[in-house]
TrEMBL record:
The lineage of its organism: Bacteria, Bacillati, Actinomycetota, Actinomycetes, Pseudonocardiales. This is Uncharacterized protein. Residues 79-88 have a biased composition (Basic and acidic residues). Residues 62-88 are annotated as: Disordered. Residues 1-27 form the signal peptide. Keywords: Signal. It comes from the Bacteria.
Length: 88
């Protein structure tokens, strides 16, 4: 009956890869939490659904920074989202 053996070098190399993977996952998680903590907004805002559209009330988005469209123009291929794409 043959017995399988593993050398201590193979075992320590596997342990090093495991520890390195866990350390990098921990570092990326810490960086993500730190980034989110820096990007806080005092007013999170809320979405309000009206008859035929959804409106963001409050929040940190400045409406002047958003592109403006003429609501009288018919929806064409240049419009990305229309109200019928909304899924509650």
């Amino acid at each position: 009956m043959a017995r399988a053996t593993t050398s201590s070098a193979t075992r320590s190399a596997g342990m090093f890869q495991l520890v390195a993977g866990l350390a990098s996952a921990l570092a990326f998680t810490g960086a993500a939490f730190y980034t989110v903590e820096l990007a806080t907004c005092g007013d999170a805002g809320q979405y309000v659904r009206h008859d035929n559209h959804v409106e963001l009330i409050g929040g940190c988005v400045d409406g002047n920074d958003l592109p403006h469209t003429d609501p009288r123009q018919p929806a064409g291929s240049d419009r990305i989202a229309e109200h019928n794409n909304y899924r509650p």
